[in-house]
Amino acid sequence: MSEATRFRDPANQSMVLTALYIAQEQYGYLSQEALARVAERLELPISQVYSTASFYSLLRTQEKGKYHIQVCEGISCALCDGAEKLVDYLEEKLDIQPGEISPDGMFSLEVVQCLASCGTSPALRVNDELHDDLNFDKVDRLLDQLVEREEA
Ligand code: FES
After folding, report:
1. pTM for this structure?
2. Any bridge partners for residue 69, and if so which?
């Protein structure tokens, strides 16, 4: 198969998201090495694989904490006065800023755009799990559950 034909092969392109998701599950995040392996296996340009990985907030191209918390700052979450306060609250609780990982490697924090839960904002996601209709009490319970999960 020629290079140009492979680039247009819809079967290879349709597998990119699934392959990236599986690689992330295996390695914890999509390192340059993981992206290169996906590109090689699907016979796609690394630039195409990287642009897909960097577009979706569910995919992580940098190392994150065991529990990666993504707080939505999309318009619905911002309008209900939740996004900024949640980020401030989590910064204080976890003692990290967006883009950082806690010293114990447990938590990392990121601010993202819409998590597709606008009707029940404000929302955040911990790894693949969505949490919505949030307030500080719910965030406290969520963090407690994650810590308890580690101690069990
Ligand atoms: S704007 Fe926050 S979930 Fe859509």
Report:
1. 0.80
2. 109, 126
